[in-house]
Write a structure and sequence with these properties.
single chain, alpha/beta, eight-stranded parallel β-sheet, globular
Length: 232
């Protein structure tokens, strides 16, 4: 799989999300993500507006589904999402329901291993249940809380290679990465590079970061797309 750049629209206003998405698409971003803050603020309307504006672009709905898996996936699929997210800490039956809805409505399922007791086992379990992608994820509150306690902030890169080697499906790494680290993910065997809070979106205010976002994104996309994915 060639490297793919995904921008997470972790915003709470659909107009700003659409504006940021347009900039991202001009810069060469491949996938758009309706981030959890956007889904909380705008719901299905936000996904529908993204689909209306970008009819051919893959759209990830970051639902972080924990229950009611079939209905949540169905609703987002009908709104125009091409990918939905279910959590490894959900019950196995919930993951199965999301996978079933994915098959029924033509969407792919991304399994998120955040706060799994074993990140590697969590990824493998999600793949075994039928997820099409793995999101190797260190959560926002987890990172900040650990850092506030004076301890080293955990990074997805700590176990990224292990997760990649444990599964056959594509992997993406999310959570506190610098731009340089995000760009390097294909070298770990993870082809899906996610840009968002706090990379191109301000993580605290959830507003578009200051500066020339389009030029920055274009450089990032060029750097990612020029790589080969290392899964040796």
């Amino acid at each position: 799989m060639k490297p793919i750049v995904q921008i997470s629209l972790d915003l709470t206003n659909i107009d700003e999300a659409l504006e940021t998405a347009a900039i991202a698409m001009r810069a060469g971003v491949d996938w758009l993500e309706a981030g959890t803050p956007l889904i909380l603020a705008e719901g299905l309307h936000g996904v529908r507006e993204l689909r209306k504006t970008f009819p051919e672009t893959p759209i990830v709905a970051d639902l972080k589904t924990m229950d009611g898996g079939y209905l949540e996936a169905e609703m987002m699929a009908k709104a125009g999402a091409t990918h939905v997210v279910v959590m490894a800490r959900a019950h196995a039956e919930t993951v199965k329901c999301v996978v079933k809805a994915g098959a029924d409505f033509g969407v792919q399922v991304m399994g998120d291993n955040m706060v799994s007791e074993s990140m590697v086992d969590g990824a493998r379990w999600l793949e075994d249940l039928g997820c099409d992608f793995i999101i190797h994820h260190i959560g926002y509150d987890e990172r900040r809380g650990i850092a506030a306690a004076g301890q080293r902030m955990p990074s997805p890169l700590d176990q990224l290679r292990e997760v990649v080697e444990a599964v056959k499906v594509p992997v993406q790494a999310v959570g506190g990465l610098s731009l340089e680290q995000a760009i390097e993910c294909p070298r770990y065997g993870a082809p899906l590079v996610v840009l968002g809070a706090p990379l191109t979106i301000d993580a605290d205010a959830f507003k578009t970061a200051d500066g020339d976002l389009e030029s920055s994104l274009r450089l990032i996309c060029d750097a990612v797309h020029s790589q080969e994915v290392d899964r040796d």
